[in-house]
Design a protein that fits this description.
single chain; 473 residues; mainly alpha; Growth Hormone, Chain: A; 19 helices; 1% strand
Length: 473
């Protein structure tokens, strides 16, 4: 039944015309298998995209050793620029899935990753590269950040509402862990002559010792090719996910789109921003530390994300999100305390706790979105009959997918704001404390918004869902 209605034309062989995951019979017969296959290759493509998006978080820390004379603030800007471009790219990427199909756009977005990898491999071998050109190359890494929005929007169509929390959490975690992967592997491969391309000056050791910065780009090229092949061969497009730009743009007029976007800056924005800045932050604030621990932050944050989605399925996204923001504020206070006391052990412990809370919050906020829009549309259709309710659910599903992508785009701006804030604070005071105090104030606003709109008993929207069972999804 999963492929019922697929046309025989070669141009349509990856399209599925009949898709009803809410039907348990359909789901058990074929839907679940198809959804899992698409989820798997979505994770692969997204993981590679995230890795390339955050590649400059590692490369920037090695540029001085390779002979590049950039200031600390300029290095933080190289880390921040992919975050800015990534957040902007998420807007068109979100709208691309319903326009072109999830499988088709995954292939295209993966192919685009050859641009940043090639640019990096060529420029990092030339210490005379002007800063503006290096900044342009770093900006292209933002293409990897756009993948998340299209991936999340696409996968949301494949799963029934009762399973969305865990599926979206797993999809996001699979991508997020690419940050940890790049921060763990790249410092290793930079010292290995993987490619002997003397004609491009890519096989020459630079700086002190043997440093092959070009490997940071070249290493990912075969993985990009695998992602392209897997998406093209094994993923599907859903006809039911098609909608025009006007239908999707309506979500910008929904109040909850903007509220959830603000909250997602606090969760995912914190995750991606801290992940990008963490290696350089450690290097500047604790220069005596030589062991590579930066990858641990993104790792624990990524692993915690599906946990956040699962917990939200059980106890309610609003309740979990509220207390998670409280925990984020407390962890930030701890980071400030140990940074001020120059205690690296306490600093790393509190920062890892902060990373865990960003992951849990990522999962819980994304779980809230489908529930909020489902309840709103069902309430509007109440008393108008089964057909009206069915149409309301379909509209809610499309709008939820658009909001997931839109929210992820706004939230990703943290990938730019946090590294830039750290760079400015260190430039002005020599310490990152000022930036952290600003982040703490922001978390307080997130606590207030979550409580007012979703967590309090008399929330005006009625969107405070205690549990998945009570939400009837």
């Amino acid at each position: 039944m999963g492929y019922q209605g697929i046309m025989s034309s070669p141009l349509r062989r990856h399209w599925i015309d009949v898709w009803n995951p809410e039907d348990e019979t359909f789901w058990q017969a074929s839907g679940q298998k198809i959804a899992r296959r698409n989820l798997l290759w979505s994770i692969v493509a997204e993981n590679v995209g995230f890795s390339i998006w955050l590649i400059w978080s590692v490369v920037s820390t090695r540029l001085p050793k390779a002979g590049f004379h950039y200031t600390t603030e300029q290095l933080f800007s190289l880390v921040a620029l992919p975050g800015l471009i990534g957040s902007l790219m998420r807007f068109p990427y979100t709208f691309a899935v319903p326009r072109f199909g999830g499988r088709n756009w995954t292939v295209v977005s993966a192919l685009l990753l050859f641009i940043p990898t090639t640019a990096l491999a060529l420029l990092v071998t030339r210490p005379a590269t002007p800063y503006w050109l290096m900044a342009l190359a770093a900006s292209t890494a933002g293409l990897g950040g756009g993948n998340f929005a299209s991936s999340m929007a696409n996968i949301s169509f494949f799963y029934p509402d009762r399973k969305k929390g865990f599926a979206l959490g797993l999809n996001a975690a699979g991508g997020n862990i690419g940050v940890s992967t790049v921060q763990l592997l790249i410092p290793i491969v930079l010292g290995v002559p993987l490619f002997n391309l003397h004609w491009l000056s890519l096989g020459r050791p630079q700086g002190a010792g043997h440093l092959y910065l070009q490997n940071a780009g070249l290493f990912w090229m075969p993985l990009v090719a695998i992602a392209v092949f897997g998406a093209a061969r094994y993923m599907n497009n859903l006809t039911s996910a098609r909608s025009n730009f006007k239908d999707q743009l309506v979500v910008t007029r929904r109040k909850h789109t903007w509220v959830m976007s603000w909250l997602y800056i606090g969760t995912f924005g914190s995750f991606i921003g801290y992940s990008a800045a963490f290696p350089l932050l450690i290097k500047t604030q604790f220069p005596q530390v030589t062991i590579n621990l930066a990858f641990l932050g993104a790792l624990v944050g990524s692993v915690a994300r599906p946990l956040g989605g699962k917990l939200a399925d059980r106890i309610g996204g609003a309740r979990l999100t509220l207390w998670n923001f409280v925990a984020m504020g407390a962890a930030t206070v701890g980071v400030i305390h140990f940074l001020h006391g120059h205690s690296f052990g306490g600093f790393i412990a509190m920062f890892l706790l902060l990373f865990v809370t960003t992951g849990v919050g990522n999962g819980s906020t994304f779980r809230m979105i489908p529930v909020i829009f489902r309840r709103q549309h069902l309430r509007a259709a109440q008393g108008r009959g089964p057909e009206a309710e069915r149409q309301a659910l379909e509209v809610a599903r499309r709008e939820s997918a658009a909001v997931l992508g839109f929210t992820s785009a706004v939230g990703a701006c943290g990938g730019y704001l946090i590294p830039r804030s750290f760079g400015a604070a260190i430039h002005a005071t020599g310490s990152a404390e000022l930036a952290l105090r600003g982040f703490l104030v922001f978390y307080v606003t997130c606590v207030a918004l979550t409580w007012w709109f979703y967590a309090r008993r008399s929330a005006p929207t009625g969107a405070a869902i205690p549990s998945l069972a009570e939400a009837q999804v």
